[in-house]
Predict the structure.
Amino acid sequence: MINELILLISLAGIFGCVLLTLRVFGRTGLYVFSAIATILANIEVMILVDAFGMEMTLGNILFASTFLVTDILSELYGKKSAQKAVNLGIAGSVFFLLVSQSWLLYLPSASDWAMPSMRALFTNTPRLLLASLLVYALAQTFDVWLYHRWWAFTTQRFGDSDRFLWVRNNGSTLVSQLLNTLLYSIFAFAGVYPLNTLISIVLSSYIIFVFTSLADTPVIYAARHLKRRGLIADAKDSN
């Protein structure tokens, strides 16, 4: 049960960090968090583990946190701020791809011990990052668009733009995460793992995303509460 325990602790810790980052640094902090989480998730996704009776890649919680960030930005600051976080995540991934691949061009000294591990780790990184860039751009842009479409629908239907936050949060994330899971698994892992493992990765990843989507609902409500109480670092600037 060690893997399951670590995953649950990671979920609470990472989502808690999103809220703490918002509280201390405001929307700027969420921009930075999104870029860092995107890069780390693309490294962590190379690890395959067994947990909750499924074979899965890691990185799902970090990827889910980037969707939480864009939903919080959409809710508190608007569509442009959410899209800016997406653009920063893409830019950060491109920069990391270029820098990490440049490391492999060096000829190591005779006393070097790190290069073999670096080559083993980052040789497959270009495919993963290129797949992630494409899928991340599509899925996150779709998530931002769908969030505001749900918001417009519930506002028009019920005449209250404040209600049904859980609908626009989960209604956008669950659909965009399905798109993200299918496209990323195919682009990144087709031919790397056998078909049965690939199917297991798709199913387990989406199950995790469903769980994390439901789990982030209290976080986005807490974020809105912080904003209304003026407890966010940039609250005065954003009013």
About this structure: The longest helix spans residues 2-44. Strands lie at 48-51, 54-57. DSSP finds nine helices and two strands in the chain.
